[in-house]
């Protein structure tokens, strides 16, 4: 049903969106919210960027490459921030972000 | 990682989002675009509503029930419109929409 | 250019979106982020809901009333949370949210 | 309340979003929808990109420059497509898009 080349990338974006939205929520429930401020900010932006990229691929946008390039940049920043924190939700989010960054980077190439 | 009660509903929303975005694109590529105008309009709105609902569940929003209620209404309207058209993408979209409407309706109850 | 009945409501939604996004950012930069956690959560949801409602009115969606009803509920919750905090950005945000809630409520009626 | 440097660009994005969403709706109501297919597709993408860019500036995102760069590209494509059509909504949309493209381009520089 979908452009086969996009399938893996859409999947990575949707998994990253889920990990970021969950991490956003979990960070807001942590005791030391202040330490998580950058994580919260980037989780929101990364989740929304991934949703935007998934939509672009699903609708066969003429801007898929440029959108995936930007998505890769934002995922990478979010993954690097999340990686600094020991919380399980941050570590899982870092993994999803960095994987998505890599796949989006290939899509953009 | 995610509230277990939400998992099925998030999955249905993301599948409906994908079906709607694909149908939006495919309708725009049909020969008789005019006949597809309502489908195109509802595909956009339904895809975006499903993304919004998935985000709300993933981030454990206090408005999940009300958001899923609205999502069910929009999915139902989109599914009923898509059902009228014989194109494969419309039939698949109708199925995803009506399934998502039902699951969102239960979530909202 | 736009349905005249929608103009005031679109304006209120866009002003509320701006106030919420600014408050989201400013809350994340406060010293006591933990106290602002609910505010941050609702700012995000309210900003995104207002953008969704503005889009629906601008594109003459068949779901404008139901969308504005939900938008009113979310704006009201966000406004009531922001009102509790003395920060200038929270007070301004509360004002924009409660005004938008009222106008969306009328639109939904 | 807002970073002064962003004000003009946010305003251009919100005006472009409105023009695109209105044009999306108006194109779907035209007699010859098929001729408007590319316009409809780009109107959706441009409106949503502009909303994303406005949000990024309002929340002081670290990715404002890159997001405005992408927004400029999408606005330019949408403006160039709209310019081809004589409908009043297309001409107005082209104007809003090309103005927004220029302002986003400066922001990205």
TrEMBL record, chains A, B, C, D:
<dbReference type="Pfam" id="PF03860">
    <property type="entry name" value="Csp"/>
</dbReference>
<protein>
    <submittedName>
        <fullName>Four-helix bundle copper-binding protein</fullName>
    </submittedName>
</protein>
<dbReference type="InterPro" id="IPR044543">
    <property type="entry name" value="YHJQ-like"/>
</dbReference>
<dbReference type="InterPro" id="IPR005560">
    <property type="entry name" value="Csp_YhjQ"/>
</dbReference>
């Amino acid at each position: 049903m979908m452009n086969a080349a996009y399938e893996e990338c859409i999947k990575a974006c949707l998994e990253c969106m889920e990990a970021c939205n969950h991490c956003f929520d979990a960070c807001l429930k942590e005791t030391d919210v202040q330490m998580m401020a950058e994580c919260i900010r980037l989780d929101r932006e990364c989740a929304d960027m991934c949703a935007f990229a998934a939509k672009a691929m699903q609708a066969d946008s003429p801007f898929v490459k440029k959108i995936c390039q930007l998505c890769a940049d934002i995922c990478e920043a979010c993954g690097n921030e999340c990686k600094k924190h020991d919380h399980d939700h941050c570590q899982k989010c870092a993994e999803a972000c960095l994987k998505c960054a890599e796949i989006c980077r290939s899509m953009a190439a």
